[in-house]
Design a protein that fits this description.
Order of helices and strands: HH
Number of helices: 2
Shape: elongated
Radius of gyration: 16 Å
Largest sheet: none
Oligomer: single chain
Strand content: under 5%
Helix content: 55-70%
Distance between the termini: 35 Å
Amino acid sequence: MSGDNLHGKQPIKFYSEEVTLTKVQLLEKQLSLGDKVSDLDAKHKEWSRQLSI
């Protein structure tokens, strides 16, 4: 990766049509999960903290 993504918003366009469609599907799934994803991230952080003790 060249770091071009650090220069503002980029379109959701990738190297192949298949990868682009897959990324769009993943984004739609993540948006539909909403708070469930955030809750899972918090749980992972908590588990990591507990394991490091």
